[in-house]
Design brief:
about 350 residues; alpha+beta; five-stranded antiparallel β-sheet; four-stranded mixed β-sheet; 10 helices; 19 strands; globular
């Protein structure tokens, strides 16, 4: 274990932003977080894959890069399996390894960038499923007390792209391992429109976990820019949720506006709102180094040398424009670190 100073974070954030950490620590073991006292650093940032974050030009404080990996089945009964996985493991590789091991449930979440540790914090989701469905518990280190403890599913208070951990525990706590509980009986989730269309357009499609996994990979590859080629953080905005009356009034003016029934009302496609407002493929001005992807209007991309300011200003302009046009205020899904 070695502290590094004035460390470049450019290669470990998917936006590819030039950013420097005052102090940086590569965390490979739990004891890296417990043995030393980091209380002298008032600003602390936990970084995994850097896939859901916009970094400042300089972070004055300490950045912990969680690289604790490995996954294994720790309990198996006649009805379920529990898998323990390190927070530093690649999410996509984890999902792929589950399928290869005959553990099914996360195939709809294939090809999501980032590390496993961020999954419960953001409560990641795609194509009709969120990670909370199989979440069981997490192992966490309290940096101030230098102790490890557990949190179960109820304590996380999962919401749409949200959790208790993201709000009340976003500083001073590090997830090191996660436990997921999967039933032995597999139930495919094909309710999402894109999946249904892909299945109907595939001749002799056999409904298996591996085939759903491949299907989702294909859908995401066509719709979303690859961060390795074009810097981005995936979906930048949350899909807004409105009440039924508001949604029905919107349909009077925008009859093709996509909406999905949700326990809190109707979830509207933020991508559709942004596209209808004319932002797809645009940037804020000629000098801006950030733009809206022409592949998917939910994605802000780095056009070359984007800064925190470029991305913030573009996202703010989109939020204000959508509110002016539709009366809906979009929320950022991506974390802006100032």
């Amino acid at each position: 274990m070695k502290l590094q100073f004035n460390y470049s974070l450019k290669e470990i954030n998917t936006f590819g932003i030039e950013s420097t950490a005052e102090v940086y620590l590569n965390v490979k073991k739990v004891w890296n977080l417990i043995r030393p006292d980091y209380s002298i650093y008032h600003n602390q940032l936990i970084l995994g894959g850097g896939s859901n974050i916009v970094l400042p030009e300089r972070f004055d404080g300490i950045v912990f890069r969680v690289n604790i990996t490995g996954a294994k089945i720790v309990k198996e009964t006649a009805n379920y399996r529990i898998v323990r996985v390190g927070a530093g493991a690649s999410w996509h590789k984890f999902v792929k390894s589950l399928i290869e091991a005959g553990v099914y449930g996360f195939e709809n979440l294939a090809l999501i960038p980032g590390r496993v540790g961020a999954a419960p914090i953001q409560n990641i989701g795609a194509y009709g499923i969120e990670q909370e469905k199989y979440f069981y518990s997490a192992e966490i280190v309290d940096l101030a007390k230098r102790k490890r403890f557990f949190m179960d599913k109820d304590e996380f208070s999962f919401g749409y792209r949200n959790s208790f951990f993201k709000q009340e525990m976003k500083s001073g706590f590090v997830i090191t391992h996660i436990h997921y509980k999967f039933p032995l009986k597999w139930e495919p989730n094909t309710e999402y429109k894109d999946i249904q269309n892909a299945i109907s357009n595939t001749e002799n499609f056999e409904l298996t976990p591996n085939n759903i996994f491949k299907l989702v990979c294909d859908i995401r590859s066509k719709k979303l820019p690859d961060p390795k080629e074009t810097g981005n953080a995936g979906s930048f905005f949350k899909n807004p949720i409105v009440n039924q009356e508001f949604y029905q009034n919107l349909l009077l003016t925008y009859p093709d506006l996509t909406g999905y029934s949700d326990k809190d009302g109707m979830k509207i496609s933020a991508a559709k709102l942004i596209e209808k407002a004319g932002w797809k493929g645009r940037k804020l001005n000629e000098n801006s180094q950030a733009g809206i992807s022409d592949k998917h209007s939910l994605v802000i991309i780095n056009l070359g040398n984007a800064t925190y300011h470029d991305i913030f200003e573009l996202s703010e302009a989109v939020i204000n424009d959508i509110y002016d046009k539709y009366g809906i205020r979009l929320e950022r899904e991506v974390n802006m670190i100032s």
